[in-house]
Every structure is written in structure tokens, then in C-alpha cells.
Design a protein that fits this description.
By secondary structure, the chain is of the alpha/beta class. It has a domain of 88 residues. The chain contains 15 helices and 25 strands. β16 and β17 form a beta hairpin. The chain is globular and about 70 Å long.
């Protein structure tokens, strides 16, 4: 979606400091009011039109698109996908301006291993994988990652310069312990490949925090603690002292230690979701907020403001927690908290001055409250591009999600723009002279937070079992906000829906 003045809410505003050029911008993709209508159970007009369809998919993020992709692939085309926004994609949407396309959230997919059959099938269909060879255009170009530490940039995200002997020993021990867990084959993506084989000792990791596990292991030095904390904020929006140790270990142990890639695009994972949405456009209904799903005899009624759908089966690919506000009879409240995020796209008229390792695709600042930034123009084959777009990520990870959401939504554009610029000034003192605009997306419920006890909680596992023509499909069923988990959950729900709809016809 090309970002225009009409797409911003509120109107464009500016930020000017003495001696710096004026910076324009605003909030993008804001749709808080509709979400609050659901939360408050506001009375909405009942639709006059109706449609009978065997399967309805609620939610057009990666899980919903994957469910639709699988059904269409199996030759089943009698379904509808209902998406609240004007574009499918969920947290894998993207934007574009005159400089570059850019992501609004999810921005890469790790190169799937040979066991990741579903991802490889999809990427073969999209032309990313041909005869076992990945398209080089979308494998992340070198240089990939760097870390700003001790006043300069160094290669890689793992701290390695100027470590003491003890700090180096702890970093090596941490890597060894993660390799040991990796070799068990019980930390996998999707998680269901390995979690069913978990031992009692591994399940016990879910009852303590990652921080507690590290203290038990003697991993207390600042660099190793920072690496773990950065990683849990990156994948879970949660601090190392709050996250389940099982989930924290999964971050490191579920991937190959030496993987090529990742796969990335200027617009991030919107490259994938847009192609899926285009392929499935016959079945997708955008601007269709589902405000009620109710049982009607042996069927389900799914209400939007323009139409009610009579369905044999519902695939709930929207966030699982939202079902308690929409479905009747309501399911129990969801067991998981969610993490809010701030994603900012900064348009730069020129590159700031650098010190140390050259600019990379992923750029991280040591001990920053943010997660750093990725460069949208990194995949551009041109040797030099003066103007660029940086996507800056900030997980509001301190304390309860509800408290951080109030902070996120309470700060205006000036407040958050200043926070982002001050963060980047740690590594780029002249950043204010480079930026011409900052567009911000506030994601109130960006991802699930797998706090201790969640991974093996029966309440989570119960939602994995479809019943009575209703199947949950969101990636939060896995408590892991990963592309592969969303695809897997969507396909599993689609398989159930195909069987159920077939029985009902």
C-alpha cells in the first residue's frame, strides 16, 4: 500500500528542533476504534444480506491466508475469508513511498530446513525455490548484521569485542548449552514437530523464567544477559526475567546454527502475503469486520456489518484472545498476555556518518531499549542510494502488556518520534539532519507473550482441538509469533474444515 496523506491518522504533523530540518510524519494504519467496539460489545447494526457458504475464515493474516491457500490448493473453493482491514496481511503488511517499499512489522523468514515441508511448498509455488535452489535476489545480501557497542559498529549481533576472559567463557558456555538443546531435536519449528517428544525435564523449563535458568547455569555476565534479553524481546516482546525458559531456549535451539539467508524483501513479509491475497482474491472480503459469531443449530452465523454468513465451519484465524469478545457462547478468556510494539519507518535524505563496520540489513544498538532497525533498501542492487528508509522496531517489554498498551496509545506522534530519534542518536549523532519524515504504526497486540507455565498449559492445548465445526488457527496457539507457526496453524485448521465441511455436504 502506497502511503498517502489519506492513510495517516491524525493529519500530518511536524517535528523541528533548533538547527535541524523539519521532520514530517504521522500515525499509519490506525484502527483502534473498531477494535474497541468489539471490546466494549457496542451494539452494531444487524446486516440485511445473507450468504450460505460451507467455510468462513475470520482474519486475513498469515494464518488465515494459509488456511485459504491450503483449501484452494486441495480444490476446495466454497469458502470466504473475512478481513477487518482494507488489505489482508495482518502483521505482515507493508507500505511504500517514493524512496522504497518497507515493512510495517514482520520483515523476514529464516531459510526453511528440509523438514519444513509446508514453507517449502509455498515458496516453491511463489518462485522463491526452484529445483532446491533459493532465488538469490531474496536471500539477504551481505553485510547482514552489526552491533553498535563501545562507540563503534562491529560485525554480528553477538557481542565479541573487548570481552573479559570470564565474559567470553560465559558466551561460549551459553552457545554450548543451546547446541545441546538443539541436538535433542525437541525444539523445532513448527513447535509441534518436537514438543510432543519433550521430556519432563524440558517441560519443567516452562515453569521458570529464562533469567532464572541463566542464573542457575552461572550465565550472569552483562554481555550474555543482554544477548538473551535482546532475543526474547525480539521474538516475544518480553524481558528475559519474565519469559518462560522453554520459550527463551526455543529462540536459540530451534534454528540451524549456521543458516544461509534469511529471506527478506524491501516490503518485508508483505511480499508473501500480497501474492497470496492476489491469488486468493476471489475468496477474500476486505473491510469486513466480524463482530459476532454465534451457534445456529448445527451451523454457525458470522456477522459483519454488511452481511451475515451461514457456515458449517468457522476457522478463527484472528487473535485467539479476541474470540472471547465475539463468539457466542464465549470461550474462556485466553491464557496468554500480548505484547505491544511500535514500528517506525524513517525516510532519510542522506545516510548518517558511520564509525566501524559498514551499514547492514539489520542494525542493533547494545543496551538500547529498542531492537534497532532494518534497511528497506538493502536488497537494492544499486551500489549506492543516497535516500533510504529505515524500519525501527521497539517492543514495549517492561511489565504487564496492559500497562505498556496504555503507554503506547497515550503517547502522541511527537512523543514517539522524539523517543525514536533519541534512541538512534546513540549510534548516529547526526540522525536529525538526515531524516525528513517518520511514519509510525502502533500495534497494541503485536504478539503472544509466553510467560512461565503457558507452553504446557492445558488451556492452551485445549484450543488446539477443533470441535463442533469451529477451529482456532492463529499463531498464538503456539505462543510463538513466527511465520512458520502461523502457516502451520492455518493449514491444520483448514484440514479440519475440509473434513468437517465434507461431512456436512
Amino acid at each position: 500500500m502506497k502511503l498517502t496523506r489519506r492513510a495517516l491518522a491524525p493529519a500530518l504533523v511536524g517535528l523541528t528542533l533548533k538547527g535541524a530540518p523539519r521532520i514530517e510524519g504521522g500515525f499509519a494504519l490506525e484502527n483502534v476504534e473498531q477494535g474497541h467496539l468489539l471490546r466494549d460489545r457496542a451494539p452494531l447494526m444487524r446486516p440485511r444480506e445473507s450468504e450460505r457458504v460451507p467455510v468462513v475464515i475470520v482474519g486475513g493474516g498469515m494464518a488465515g491466508l494459509s488456511a485459504a491457500w491450503w483449501m484452494e490448493r486441495q480444490g476446495f473453493r466454497d469458502f470466504r475469508l473475512l478481513e477487518m482491514e482494507n488489505e489482508a496481511g495482518g502483521n505482515a503488511r507493508g507500505g511504500e513511498n517514493e524512496v522504497s517499499a518497507y515493512p510495517w512489522a514482520a520483515h523476514y523468514v529464516p531459510v526453511p530446513d528440509t523438514e519444513a515441508g509446508l514453507v517449502r511448498e509455498l515458496f516453491t509455488e511463489l518462485g522463491l525455490l526452484r529445483d532446491g535452489v533459493w532465488d538469490e535476489r531474496w536471500l539477504c545480501h551481505a553485510p547482514k548484521e552489526r552491533l553498535f557497542i563501545h562507540g563503534r559498529w562491529e560485525e554480528g549481533v553477538e557481542p565479541h569485542a573487548a570481552l573479559t576472559g570470564e565474559e567470553r567463557r560465559q558466551m561460549e558456555r551459553f552457545a554450548t548449552r543451546m547446541e545441546e538443546y538443539r541436538e535433542t531435536g525437541r525444539f523445532t519449528v513448527p513447535m509441534e514437530r518436537g514438543v510432543a517428544k519433550s521430556t519432563a525435564a524440558e517441560q519443567a523449563l516452562d515453569r521458570i523464567t529464562m533469567g532464572e535458568w541463566m542464573r542457575r547455569e552461572g550465565l550472569t555476565s552483562a554481555p550474555v544477559r543482554w544477548l538473551a534479553d535482546y532475543s526474547t524481546r525480539d521474538d516475544y516482546g518480553t524481558r528475559v526475567d519474565d519469559i518462560s525458559a522453554w520459550a527463551g531456549i526455543h529462540y536459540f535451539a530451534a534454528r540451524q546454527s549456521e543458516e544461509k539467508g534469511p529471506l527478506t524483501w524491501p516490503e518485508g513479509n508483505a511480499w508473501v502475503t500480497r501474492r497470496l491475497a492476489t491469488k486468493l482474491r476471489t475468496y477474500v472480503r476486505n473491510n469486513s469486520m466480524v463482530f459476532r459469531v454465534e451457534r445456529a443449530g448445527v451451523r454457525w452465523r458470522v456477522f459483519t456489518q454488511s452481511r451475515v454468513y451461514e457456515a458449517d465451519c468457522v476457522v478463527w484465524a484472528a487473535p485467539t484472545w479476541l474470540a472471547s469478545w465475539v463468539v457466542d457462547p464465549p470461550p474462556p478468556r485466553w491464557v496468554m498476555d500480548t505484547a505491544p510494539w511500535l514500528v517506525s519507518n524513517l525516510t532519510l535524505e542522506r545516510w548518517p556518518r558511520e564509525r566501524g563496520y559498514p551499514p547492514c540489513w539489520d542494525n542493533v544498538i547494545y543496551r538500547s531499549p529498542s531492537l534497532g532497525y532494518v534497511v528497506a533498501t538493502h536488497q537494492n542492487v544499486a551500489r549506492h542510494q543516497e535516500r533510504t528508509v529505515w524500519t525501527h522496531y521497539w517492543a514495549l517489554a517492561d511489565g504487564r502488556g496492559a500497562d505498556q498498551r496504555r503507554l503506547l496509545l497515550g503517547g502522541d506522534w511527537h512523543y514517539w518520534s522524539e523517543k525514536v530519534l533519541a534512541d538512534l542518536e546513540r549510534a548516529h549523532p547526526d540522525i536529525r539532519q538526515c531524516v525528513s519524515r517518520i511514519d509510525i504504526f502502533r500495534i497494541a497486540h503485536a504478539m503472544p507473550r509466553p510467560l512461565p507455565g503457558v507452553m504446557f498449559d492445558e488451556r492452551r492445548q485445549a484450543r488446539l482441538r477443533p470441535r463442533d465445526g469451529f477451529a482456532y488457527a492463529n499463531c498464538d496457539l503456539s505462543a510463538l509469533s513466527l511465520f512458520e507457526e502461523a502457516q502451520y496453524r492455518g493449514v491444520e485448521a483448514a484440514k479440519y474444515a475440509l473434513g468437517f465441511a465434507g461431512r456436512g455436504r
